Amino acid sequence: xxxxxxxxxxxxxxxIASERSKRPSDFTAHSPGREExxxxxxxxxxxxxxxxxxxxMAFRQPGSQRNGPGWxxxxxxxxxxxxxxxxxxxxAGQGMYDWMNGVGAHEVIIETxxxxxxxxxxxxxxxxxxxxxxxxxxxxxKKDARLKYILIFRNYGRVAGASLGHxxxxxxxxPIIPGVVAAELQGARRYMExxxxxxFCDMLRQETEEKRRLVAENEHFIAFEPxxxxxxxxxxxxPKRHAASFAAIAAEEQTGFAxxxxxxxxxxxxxxxxxxxxxxxxxxxxxxDDQEDFHWHLSISPRLTIAAGFEMGTGIYxxxxxxxxxxxxxxxxxxxxxxLSGEESGVASExxxx
Amino acid sequence: xxxxxxxxxxxxxxxIASERSKRPSDFTAHSPGREExxxxxxxxxxxxxxxxxxxxMAFRQPGSQRNGPGWxxxxxxxxxxxxxxxxxxxxAGQGMYDWMNGVGAHEVIIETxxxxxxxxxxxxxxxxxxxxxxxxxxxxxKKDARLKYILIFRNYGRVAGASLGHxxxxxxxxPIIPGVVAAELQGARRYMExxxxxxFCDMLRQETEEKRRLVAENEHFIAFEPxxxxxxxxxxxxPKRHAASFAAIAAEEQTGFAxxxxxxxxxxxxxxxxxxxxxxxxxxxxxxDDQEDFHWHLSISPRLTIAAGFEMGTGIYxxxxxxxxxxxxxxxxxxxxxxLSGEESGVASExxxx
Lengths: 354, 354
Hints:
By secondary structure, chain A is an alpha+beta fold. Chain A is built from nine helices and 15 strands.
């Protein structure tokens, strides 16, 4: 069972994943990414379902069998979970230190049966089904009283921490409210107390008026480069309707979310030649109905530069591309060219390597 | 002039380094590290002093000329500074956002004239002079009332963000107290208020008694793996005497600091085959004499795994090597073998690449 340990100075929690334990020689190649697996051995490809733990849910063709082919989105437990679903939450002191067993959930959302089809180039309808799978898993895990927060995220490309090339997202549920989430909630609350307005709604207003950092817009969402972007081409997708939780999304909003997510990923793909990236959904903690304080959104961080000693020691990121410049480049992308290039090189960053 | 922008939600500052501005095509190789330069073109090698901005200070042979050879430690302004030393600090709003011009300092400490000699394998006396140079620059910049914090750090290896192979450290002075620093100060203060003891002194006591996470010890310092290590083989050097600021170090402590820094880096070098790493000195902000609250130290983070979407979205790091295991491996290292291997491969990670 993994364990959670707390830094006695900052109060930040760390997962010690003893089951994944590595010896020094496992690191000495200095290339943290594992090799791309070929299709026959890919545990996420149709017909290889037995290579994964039994599925939690799937969108399937009528008549197809659980843990067999015939699905178009499939959710499974992570084979090497960062946090384990079994058992009660135990807490203890270890001398001056604070300890907790690693109770939680860690799931994988396989986004398509097609090994080489990047999320950016899936049909909007298929992207929407991936988002519905996110929501279904979110709502199911929210019932578990041990879990305080559910993070949905995507690592794309080896440089961004993906170890398998087949398109997938992940979900981790934690027994604590993570520090980054607590800081965002607290900041949004502080702004609300001071101004009696939502900070995200204010951003929506200023970005839509100024347009300098705007990348795309549809009826329900904007995509923009944040004013204080931490890295080149950091991009946020923000719903126009104020809602604390991603799970509160309405059907017509989900369609708009899928459309702007696909479009934004395609713009990044063309502009930056299929960059590695991480995306996260920022949403309120489970069972928080403070609809006034928070406003859910998705942030995409391309991995183009390295955070080093300065960033680690200060938390201040150095961004070499002003967000206004990045937005201009992204707006200029020819999306028809994107459609073509996507057919050819949807997972280029997986095979291209570092 | 670089600018500082504040995230309106979390309050975190970001440096937008417009002078370093990059176009999309600059990123598309997806290999953030630049190439190693050969010795003739290395701006940090003796006789190439004219390739750098004029030196700020140097330890030199008697009779040698400023900005010429004859030095053994040399400090210069960074040619591409993250923050600029000129001008007054200006602050302004930009709609809902907060802005500041990027006033500060960014210096490079060249640790040795020898291009291929890693810090780990310098004589203790030479390491000590590097540390004296750190302190001299710290004390000089501390006089500048515009500067609130001074971070001294080292990026080693391309994966850890180093762009030049010649051994060097860096110093960045900021016009604000960085978020990571504020969180550490606040945490140490909270612990002190609650227990009336220093959290670092308590760690020193528990680690010295338990010994499970201890890596090395001398009269003035311990080296240990922290209980809640964020990454495999994270190692801290903690002075035994409580002091808030690195600058308060006494002469005999500096010798002990140099000795344990060298020993720890050699243990990491042998154990992990010359890993890339970052180290930072955690010290109190300039002009803070709260000697009771903080306790300076140095943290070393080998770059062996990739922080991805989960870490970005939660701030919770997943560490696959328990610190007790890492400490055991590091204690077992044969330092005589280290001395030999260091002669041969002091900068292996530079040429080895990702």
